[in-house]
Write a structure and sequence with these properties.
There is one protein chain. By secondary structure, the chain is mainly α. 58% of the residues lie in helices and 0% in strands. It has twelve helices and no strands. α5 crosses α6, α8 runs antiparallel to α12 and α9 packs across α11. The termini are far apart.
């Protein structure tokens, strides 16, 4: 396989150098993670293995995930921007460098093994309207009317949040869950689909903060409209 194919899949240079080095050489027989500088300082011909190399794809994924998680938020943001620029995806339009890409990428950093994992998880930040089937709004144990009540009540509650940050959003929605006597998971599950189009998303409250109050209000209102068309 061409090394460029691994680059296109989202493997980062640090991981590939580290991994390929270990295919035929070892530092001390046990150390698996090291920098290029450490490799330069310690490399010697007498530790090159004479046996055949074993290409362990699972180990490469683990190693690549380690290097991604080791980046700070700005570095990961820059890496994703470069990756999308070189290998465009329909999920992410042309994105200009900004503070938000740092914040967004930090939400999913722990879940990434390769850079190409990122786009499906955060594409909702970059589209004008999230896409999903209206039936996905209805959580287990709920019906259309109950779901519409959750959405309309959430619309009012979120509209009253003055400082639209993750903590304030969480406080408001957990209080609403108790007020409506519905499970928190049901309420948040409905809002997760309405605002991200995903059943499993990055942390919801932080995602809503980054999206902004105007966008979230728009998404919730649209979800109400979609459900209304179901009856």
């Amino acid at each position: 396989t061409s090394i460029l194919e691994y680059r296109a899949k989202g493997y980062v240079p640090q991981a590939m150098v580290n991994f390929l080095t270990l295919l035929g050489w070892s530092l001390d027989g046990s150390t698996e993670l090291f920098s290029v500088n450490e490799l330069v300082e310690n490399f010697s011909l007498n530790r090159i293995s004479k046996s055949g190399a074993i290409f362990d794809a699972e180990k490469l994924n683990w190693m690549n995930g380690h290097y991604i998680r080791s980046m700070d938020g700005e570095e990961l943001g820059r890496s994703l921007l470069r990756y999308w620029d070189e290998f465009p995806t329909t999920d992410i339009p042309k994105v200009e460098p900004s503070t938000s890409i740092t914040d967004i990428s930090s939400l999913i950093q722990e879940r990434l093994k390769i850079l190409s994992d990122a786009a499906p998880l955060i594409k909702f930040f970059f589209c004008d309207e999230v896409k999903y089937d209206a039936s996905e709004l209805i959580q287990k144990g709920m019906d259309i009317d109950g779901t519409k009540l959750i959405l309309s009540s959430s619309l009012s509650a979120l509209g009253e949040v003055i400082v639209f940050d993750a903590d304030s959003i969480e406080t408001s929605l957990r209080a609403l869950s108790s007020e409506l006597n519905v499970k928190t998971g049901q309420l948040l599950g409905t809002l997760r689909v309405a605002t991200t189009g995903l059943k499993v998303s990055p942390p919801l409250f932080q995602s809503m903060e980054i999206s902004g109050k105007k966008r979230i209000i728009k998404d919730v209102q649209l979800a109400i409209n979609r459900l209304s068309m179901e009856k």
